[in-house]
Automatic annotation (TrEMBL):
Protein species of origin: Acinetobacter genomosp. 15BJ
Superkingdom of the organism of origin: Bacteria
InterPro entries the record matches: GmrSD_N
PANTHER family associated with the record: DUF262 DOMAIN-CONTAINING PROTEIN, VNG6097C
UniProt name for this protein: DUF262 domain-containing protein
Domain GmrSD restriction endonucleases N-terminal, chain residue ranges per copy: 11-270
């Protein structure tokens, strides 16, 4: 055996070890993911005497490991999205010995944040900012209500722990009774003998808070003090082996019973150690750029970037340890600048398609586009991603790619077996890279009559036309139906006949509508669905505002007409003729749908078969299908 259980530590000793960098995190560890509720529940468990499970440390003594592998400090001042990455610490061969946390990072970080740091998360019903903003993400400290226990709490907690901002704390703590205790104060309480704890710590603190007669407060504060300063609650197994492969195996086995390892976690264990520079920082910078860049705002995870990198270098993207080799990491680093640029240009292209962060229902659907732009060469032999966003070039390419993209988003193709569908689609794209344009037709053909069939039938199209304003797929449907809209403009989804006109009170007051007509008008499936929606640019949206459709079409100076709505001049735009307008436009949109997507012949194919995507490369595929 290469390790053993050591003498347990107090929480105070563990926090001191974190602060002195005697406890560090290996690169293999994922980032901190616990919520504020989970942290509160951990402290509730500590106070109630519940076990918080054992920890596993890796004692680092070998100079080669210190020199060749990267380690990270514990996270302080956690802020959702904006400070989630552990800071790198410079370690060299002569650095002091330390312990790397193999199992227990989330719990130790939670204890550390609760006792001496802060936790910031977004306020409810507030949009995410593009840069850190304390008004949206105020730092919070952990507090405990000493006055009384929780009753009938759904989380099954007994003690009332809360993360509070400074403003909230001032509002809750009255001048007379200061019942909210900051846990930072507990850590800083003097370390006295057990016999003196009540007289020298508990009683003075309660007297200062006017809680001397509260038996719950005295009992709770004593328990908390003892749990932090006296009780040896941190039981840990100390792994002393300096064989990295052995420790990696221990890590995988130890963590397999908890939250499943993310795609990126195992890769990081090798990637960071074999990367010339800070790999984590590279990925963090890229994700921040995509999220914070003007007009983008897409939030992507580390997993997505690493999966895309493997995709672009034509390697297996599935979650298998054998795929995470040193050679593969070095191959990614060699091409990293090109991979980064391609990813950036791909998200710029997606935004030009009119898809925003809210309407991008599958980030995995972006990966095949990224692959095509990376591997496809233009007429000058350069990667296509270098020119795809030049609006004077590659017009047909953008049209084909956008059509495919809208179709896969609406069909939900990447909703299951994501790695498998990505890999199988890569094979089709790779085999057809000599085609002049994105091989949309070849992809359609490859998945015909499978559970990933990209074609639409009449029922599916009817369901698409029933999509309501506000649904995430609404924008995607409208962009698919109106490809002529300029990619350089930002479009708003607008009700053609203003929604305020459809209130039942308004209809009844007019007195011109029958009960049947009123029932038709107030039905949101009519006025709030695709047939009464359109994409308008800033100037058109501003000029229309809440005007009735008929008067706006007649009076607007932007040249917008019936033709832009796909209906002819024989269709009345008057509100009293809304039923005729709705039916005519829905039929026109359905016809446009048929023109823009590929249709499944219901007479020839009555069912789809499951496609074994994991073994797609072994399928017999007609070469005429894949090669033009």
């Amino acid at each position: 055996m290469s390790g053993q259980y050591e003498k347990p530590l107090t929480i105070k000793e563990a926090v001191n070890a974190i602060q002195s960098n005697d406890f560090l995190l290996p690169a293999i560890q994922r980032k901190f993911v616990w919520t504020s509720n989970q942290i509160s529940q951990l402290f509730d468990s500590v106070l109630r005497g519940y076990p918080i499970n054992s920890f596993m440390m890796w004692e680092i003594t070998d100079s080669e490991i210190k020199k060749n592998y990267k380690f990270y400090e514990f996270l302080t001042k956690y802020c959702q999205r904006f400070n989630e990455e552990n800071p790198h610490i410079e370690i060299n061969a002569s650095s002091k010995n330390f312990k790397a946390i193999i199992d227990g990072q989330q719990r130790l970080t939670s204890l550390y944040i609760g006792l001496c740091s802060t936790y910031a998360y977004k306020q409810p019903r507030v949009w995410w900012p593009t840069a850190y903003d304390e008004s949206v993400l105020p730092p919070r400290k952990l507090y405990l209500d000493l006055s009384q226990p929780l009753e009938d709490d759904e989380s099954m907690m007994h003690y009332n722990f809360k993360f509070l901002t400074d403003t909230q704390f001032k509002q809750l703590n009255s001048a007379d009774v200061k019942n909210w205790l900051c846990l930072h104060d507990v850590l800083n309480m003097p370390n006295v003998d057990l016999a003196d704890a009540i007289l020298k710590v508990v009683f003075p603190e309660l007297a200062r808070r006017n809680l001397s007669t509260n038996s719950f407060a005295s009992e709770t504060l004593l328990k908390l003090y003892m749990a932090v300063h006296k009780e040896q609650l941190i039981h840990y197994f100390n792994e002393k082996s300096q064989e990295v492969d052995h420790v990696l195996d221990v890590f995988i086995r130890t963590n397999s019973g908890g939250t499943k390892l993310a795609f990126s976690d195992l890769l990081m264990s090798i990637a960071v150690a074999n990367w010339n520079g800070d790999f984590r920082k590279e990925i963090e910078n890229l994700t921040n750029w995509i999220y914070q860049s003007q007009d983008l705002g897409f939030y992507i995870e580390r997993d997505w970037i690493l999966k895309t990198a493997l995709m672009l270098i034509d390697e297996d993207v599935r979650f298998k340890v054998k795929n995470f080799t040193t050679e593969r990491v070095q191959q990614i680093q060699t091409q990293w600048e090109q991979i980064k640029d391609c990813i950036k240009e791909t998200f710029k292209l997606i935004r030009k398609f009119g898809v925003n962060a809210q309407s991008l229902t599958s980030k995995n659907a972006v990966i095949p586009i990224c692959y095509y732009l990376y591997q496809k060469r233009d007429e000058f032999g350069q990667p296509l991603y270098l020119t795809i966003n030049d609006l004077s070039k590659q017009i047909e390419q953008r049209e084909k790619i956008s059509q495919w993209f809208y179709m896969v988003l609406l069909k939900g193709v990447f909703g299951g077996q994501a790695d498998s569908i990505i890999s199988s689609m890569r094979r089709v794209i790779r085999t057809n890279l000599l085609d002049p344009l994105f091989p949309l037709e070849k992809i359609i053909k490859a998945y015909e009559a499978t559970n990933k069939d990209l074609r639409f039938d009449d029922t599916y199209i009817e369901n698409m036309l029933n999509i309501q304003y506000g649904e995430v797929r609404c924008r995607t449907v409208l962009h698919l139906l109106f490809p002529e809209l300029k990619a350089t403009e930002i479009f708003h989804i607008d009700h053609l006949h203003p929604q305020t006109l459809f209130a039942k009170k308004n209809l009844v007051n007019q007195g011109d509508f029958t009960d049947e007509q009123i029932a038709f008008y107030v039905n949101a499936n009519h006025w709030n669905s695709i047939a009464n929606l359109h994409l308008l640019n800033d100037s058109l949206n501003l000029s229309k505002n809440s005007q009735p459709l008929e008067s706006w079409i007649k009076n607007n100076t932007c040249g917008f007409s019936n033709k832009d709505l796909l209906i002819d001049d024989t269709i009345s735009l008057g509100f009293t003729d809304f039923e005729d307008f709705y039916k005519a436009r829905r039929q026109a949109l359905k016809q446009r749908f048929v023109e823009r997507v590929y249709i499944q012949d219901a007479q020839k194919e009555t069912k789809s078969v499951d496609l074994d995507l994991d073994n797609f490369d072994d399928l017999e595929v007609d070469d005429d299908l894949l090669i033009a």
